[in-house]
Automatic annotation (TrEMBL):
Keywords: DNA-binding, DNA-directed RNA polymerase, Nucleotidyltransferase, Sigma factor, Transcription, Transcription regulation, Transferase. One of its GO terms (biological process) is DNA-templated transcription initiation. Gene3D superfamilies: Homeodomain-like, RNA polymerase sigma-54 factor, core-binding domain. Residues 286-443 form the RNA polymerase sigma factor 54 DNA-binding domain. It comes from the Bacteria. This is RNA polymerase sigma-54 factor.
Length: 445
């Protein structure tokens, strides 16, 4: 049997999304904080003879706001403020340390690895997870249960307590991994930290039907757990927060400026520029052209970073105007997608823009992430701010019968009756953030 084989050419049109070197460079530079960018510029200058650096004016640097991370009093204090957001970026040795543990997880799919890597990159310096799970699920188009599963995987890494979303969870993860932890330790962490902190050992002992000494021993154990797990694997250091954006008030208007005073200015070395005009061919000419192209890409990338940062900041502040009158208490629910749609950028680009960036305002210095709050969708379709819901929870507790205080579930039911669908665990979370003890503790008082 003979089979006839023929060869022929066929034209086919395809549309492919391709990133130019300029776009790739711009996206890479966009994610850097001010200090990281300064380091990158100096590295490039060392490797590229065409780049000359003009050092920043030292007098300007002295005027620039640089806030030690220990001076919490410099920040506005209210229920929304989270000091973990204001800790400087983590040491670069942390990510590889966790990546080594991720590499041995052989059964993960490519998309699962990408999600875990995303979670690792959203750990703050203390080791707490600093990202919204619903937004993460939407970003990677997976069920939220899958995100919870991968968070549990991350929480199994070393050091114990990594990937926790609260102090309670951090301590509970450490106790759960210790086979020698005293009996009832996890339950005490999750339900009775306030009681233990106030020394009500007999009250807790009566609840569990155990001797008071047993509760005291458990509390001694809890106190030696590490509330900041990543501190165990990185050297302690005093760092300064340098704001990437500065907002100043002038005649009732808020003026945004990108802080580039800290950065050395880039220029092209005139000697090599002249040599390039003379030597237009050969290996030397090719080398000089390549280095010139690299220098121009770097300068354009920095310029693009500044433009994008300005546009995104301007959009954020337009959405959060009340912040300048009342501070963080007046922040309204805001998501990355709203800003992305408003400025015409991809959501991932906005995420890069706000990552590890700080803004100096008349109200203090804040991480840009501070301005993004996930609201609760009401039955009428409106989105309610968590701050207002906290006020409602506080008002309900303030008016309750002291002899019969309301459980978190009953508070959730009352809010549901007002058209606010909220889970019991969310009520518990908000109550704890308000420093209000649970119902058993309120009964005792």
């Amino acid at each position: 049997m003979l089979v006839e084989v023929s060869l022929h050419l066929q034209h086919k049109l395809e549309t492919k999304l391709s990133l130019t070197p300029y776009v790739k460079q711009s996206l890479e530079i966009l994610k850097y904080s001010l200090e990281e960018l300064e380091h990158i510029i100096r590295e490039e200058a060392n490797a590229n003879p065409l780049i000359e650096l003009i050092e920043p004016n030292s007098e300007h640097l002295l005027e620039m706001a640089r806030v030690p991370n220990s001076q919490a009093s410099n920040y506005e204090s209210d229920a929304l403020f989270d000091p973990l957001l204001h800790i400087p970026q983590q040491d670069s040795s942390i990510e590889p340390y966790l990546m080594e543990q991720l590499a041995v997880q052989r059964r993960l799919t490519k998309s699962e690895r990408e999600i875990v890597l995303y979670l690792i990159r959203n750990l703050n310096e203390s080791g707490y997870l600093d990202c919204d799970m619903e937004e993460t699920a939407e970003r990677f188009r997976v069920p939220i249960e899958k995100c919870d599963e991968l968070i549990s995987l991350l929480q199994s890494f070393e050091p114990a307590g990594i990937g926790a979303r609260s102090l309670r969870e951090c301590l509970q993860l450490q106790a759960a991994r210790d086979g020698n932890a005293p009996k009832h330790t996890e339950a005490l962490i999750l339900r009775h930290l306030e009681d233990l902190a106030q020394g009500d050992f007999q009250f807790v002992a009566d609840l569990y039907g155990v001797p008071k000494r047993e509760i005291e021993n458990a509390f001694s154990y809890i106190k030696q757990l590490n509330p900041r797990p990543l501190m165990a694997v990185q050297s302690a250091r005093q760092e300064l927060i340098i704001p990437d954006i500065i907002v100043e008030e002038f005649n009732g208007e808020h003026i945004i400026s990108i802080n580039d005073m800290y950065l050395p200015q880039i220029s092209i070395n005139p000697h090599y520029e002249e040599l390039l005009r003379i030597t237009d061919c050969g290996e030397t000419g090719t080398y000089l052209k390549t280095k010139l192209s690299d220098a121009i890409l770097l300068m354009r990338g920095i310029e693009q970073r500044h433009e994008t940062l300005y546009k995104v900041t301007e959009s954020i502040l337009k959405k959060q105007r009340a912040f300048f009158q009342k501070g963080t208490k007046a922040l309204v629910p805001l998501r990355l997608k709203e800003i992305a749609d408003h400025v015409g950028l991809h959501e991932s680009t906005v995420s890069r823009t706000i990552s590890n960036k700080y803004i100096r305002t008349p109200k203090g210095i804040f991480a840009l992430k501070t301005f993004f709050i996930r609201g609760v969708k009401m039955h009428n379709g409106e989105v309610e701010s968590p701050l207002l819901i906290k006020e409602k929870i506080k008002a309900i507790i303030d008016s309750e019968d002291r002899n019969k205080p309301l459980s978190d579930q009953k508070i959730a039911n009352l809010l549901l009756a007002e058209g606010i669908p909220i889970a019991r665990r969310t009520v518990a979370k908000y109550r704890e953030e308000l420093s209000i003890p649970q119902s058993a503790r309120r009964t005792k008082k």
